[in-house]
Write a structure and sequence with these properties.
Rossmann fold; 12 strands; alpha/beta; Arc Repressor Mutant, subunit A; five-stranded parallel sheet; 225 residues; binds calcium ion; single chain
Length: 225
């Protein structure tokens, strides 16, 4: 799997490149829009990761140019949190998915995995575990035909589990990912949201449960019938 990374912030580019290489992807990094077009047109990539704010051509122009020359490689764009119009424009000109900065490494890997598996198709943004499926965009949790809307926080908490399905998730990790390192959130906040999610798992009659490991944290489990 070969990825072209187009990001002008060198530190971020280096971090993303390292992360992807650790997972076995081959990564070429370029730092401006014109180089991106040159590289993408010359060598075949399985995925392009394109920042929107770039020197030279911006990310939107890069995507537009490549699509006009019939390049169908999936594109994941990186946008600033506030730039909603960029996301819409980017998707309209042919990006397949977007991610807002700053992002967690697991989210990046999940999206890269989804885009490289379903080459050229629209990504539905579903993360699955056991009999569950969570739609990341809508925060709707489903089991078969039954579904339930999660609140934003519930979805953020559950995502930490779904992106690390085999890991024991510590309370500290949940607080850091969902509430932020500077927050005043405590074990109690986490416990409350875990209990909300458990109620919804029960409502869906899911075979997935969140097991508490005293003094350590939590783990997602599939209960075989
Ligand atoms: Ca940038």
């Amino acid at each position: 799997m070969k990825i072209l990374l187009v990001e002008d912030e060198v530190a971020l580019s280096n971090a993303v490149k390292k992360l992807l290489e650790q997972k076995g992807y081959l990564v070429d990094a370029v730092y401006d829009g014109l180089s991106a077009v040159d590289y993408a047109e010359i060598s075949p990539y399985d995925l392009l990761i394109v920042d929107i704010m770039l020197p030279g051509l911006d990310g939107i122009q890069v995507i537009e140019r490549l699509r006009k020359s019939n390049l169908n490689t999936p594109v994941l764009m990186l946008t600033a949190r506030t730039a909603i119009s960029d996301k819409v424009t980017g998707l309209n000109v042919g990006a397949d998915d977007y991610m807002t900065k700053p992002f967690h490494s697991e989210e990046l890997l999940a999206r890269v995995g989804a885009l490289t598996r379903r080459k050229g198709e629209i990504v539905l943004n579903d993360v699955r575990f056991g009999d569950l499926s969570l739609n990341i965009e809508s925060a709707i949790l489903s089991r078969g035909d039954d579904s339930v809307q999660l609140s934003h926080k519930e979805s953020e908490v559950l995502k930490v589990f779904l992106y690390n399905p085999t890991m024991t998730i510590t309370t500290e990790l949940l607080i850091s990912r969902v509430w932020g390192d500077d927050s005043e959130a405590t074990d109690n906040n986490v416990e409350v949201y875990i209990s909300f999610i458990r109620k919804k798992l029960k409502y869906l009659k899911s075979n997935v449960s969140i097991k508490k490991l005293p003094k350590i944290g939590y783990r997602l489990e599939v209960n075989e019938a």
